[in-house]
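User: I've been trying to design a sequence by hand for this structure and keep getting stuck. Would you show me what you'd pick, starting by listing the structure so we're on the same page?

Assistant: Good idea, let's start from the same input. This is the structure you sent:
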């Protein structure tokens, strides 16, 4: 059973980048540090990690804990943002801070997918910069809010295959005592159709310009608890189950098949 009193800032895990030239990632000290450490430990103790097979590739999907995992997730985001034209070759993105949990899908030592879950603490959500009025309407209605950001998937991967396990890990934070009930995404308008069609997000704020990446943005919102049950993800799971059953059946049939001498 989760007991918030057990965790204090002195127990906060600190993760440093192996490369000493890279910024340090850690929870540090203080009230926000203790709260971030509680959440990190709680999600991990829930089993916020899974091993997923995608196209024959074995992926470890969970919270980024090591400096290498954080570096790989950050590099994937920058690489995909540059490929999409959202980030110049000279610009860089800030690293995750103490209010954020980074979910990463790793194949061996390489990140193939990542999403960052930002909690509504300290400076609030990144989307507050443009949409504070819209998000405050949810807060004033009693909602606990959070935000997905730095969402990136390797261009060689099937998006649905990797989004599903990453969301399952990210949504484990919904079991936190402060339980976020609503999640927001500030994304490019051309990506909004994916969030709306596949994950059930709704438009919550009009299009504007996001100075962080110098591109248009729109605010989307969805109930956090319902994300993993989005119809498109459920259908993909069912398809995987059918394919796995067919593969198992083929393996069993091949074990019982004995070639005749003419075929040998």
């Amino acid at each position: 059973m989760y007991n918030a009193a057990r965790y204090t800032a002195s127990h906060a895990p600190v993760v440093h980048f192996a490369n000493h030239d890279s910024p340090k990632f850690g929870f540090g000290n203080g009230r926000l540090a203790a709260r971030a450490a509680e959440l990190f430990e709680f999600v991990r103790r829930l089993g916020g990690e899974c091993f997923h097979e995608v196209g024959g590739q074995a992926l470890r999907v969970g919270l980024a804990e090591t400096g290498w995992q954080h570096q790989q997730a950050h590099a994937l985001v920058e690489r995909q943002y540059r490929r999409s034209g959202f980030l110049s070759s000279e610009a860089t993105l800030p690293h995750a801070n103490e209010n954020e949990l980074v979910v990463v899908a790793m194949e061996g030592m390489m990140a193939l997918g990542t999403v960052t879950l930002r909690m509504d603490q300290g400076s609030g959500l990144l989307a507050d910069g443009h949409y504070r009025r819209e998000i405050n309407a949810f807060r004033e209605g009693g909602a606990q809010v959070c935000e997905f950001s730095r969402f990136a998937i390797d261009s060689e991967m099937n998006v649905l295959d990797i989004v599903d396990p990453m969301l399952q890990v990210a949504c484990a934070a919904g079991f936190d005592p402060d339980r976020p009930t609503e999640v927001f995404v500030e994304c490019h308008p051309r990506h909004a159709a994916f969030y709306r069609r596949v994950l059930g997000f709704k438009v919550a704020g009009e299009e504007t310009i996001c100075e962080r990446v110098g591109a248009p943005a729109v605010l989307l919102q969805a109930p956090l608890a319902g994300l993993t049950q989005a119809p498109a993800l459920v259908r993909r799971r069912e398809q995987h189950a059918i394919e796995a059953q067919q593969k198992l059946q083929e393996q069993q049939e091949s074990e019982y098949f004995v070639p005749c001498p003419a075929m040998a």
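That's my pick for every position. To get oriented when you compare it with your attempt: The helical segments are 31-45, 67-83, 128-140, 159-171, 189-199, 231-256. The first strand starts at residue 14 and ends at 15.
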